[in-house]
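Worked problem 6 (solution included).
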Amino acid sequence: EDESRIIGGRPCSVAQRPFQVALTKRGQILCGGSLVGARWVLTAAHCKQPLRDLQVLIGTNTLRAGTGQVRRVSRLLVHPGYDPRRNDNDFMLLHLDAPVRFGPRVKKIRPATRCPRAGQNCSISGWGTTKSPGARLPRDLQCAQVQTFGPEQCARAYGSAVTRNMFCAGVAQGGVDSCQGDSGGPLVCGGYLQGVVSWGLAVCAQRGNPGVYSNVCRATPWIRRVIGSD
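Solution. The predicted structure is:
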């Protein structure tokens, strides 16, 4: 299993994904995330790093310096049910040091209140590696289409490692997946934030081994409590 966890995607514009943010550590891509409020980003708990090392890039297709809006993280809150051994409840909220400026390329996304059904068409995005095994980091944001898998299909791949706070998504024949560097980023179904990229096998996009996503519907009450009316 790989901790930091887009293969088979294509470049896309942040205008199509205005909620997508990049979490960088000393200038390098660390994880993705989703804007859920003017000062709040939802990402994966396993992306946690010392605050002083983190920057959030908002409203940009590219990770080059000087593009988009840049914020520091003033505090981070890990989901109270997070279990790092199992990657269960792999959620973390980042509080930004100043509100973002909303516009065509910067919008928040609503966390899903309904849990996913099998066979839903969804999209994933990020700046993670586009090659696995090996690594090739793209300059520009990549997007891909995937389908949600039912619990039985997911259990065939990973057994009891998948809890009800997780679900699987991918394509049946393999070849499309989130991968190293995409962790914490969005899986979006029908305009709602349905999943957060969490874990998978170290070699991504293998047939029969879909990506595993934290199940946002199970964390929405916690998210709402923390961010309030932002």
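Discussion: Residues 18-108+219-229 form a domain with the Thrombin, subunit H fold (CATH 2.40.10.10).
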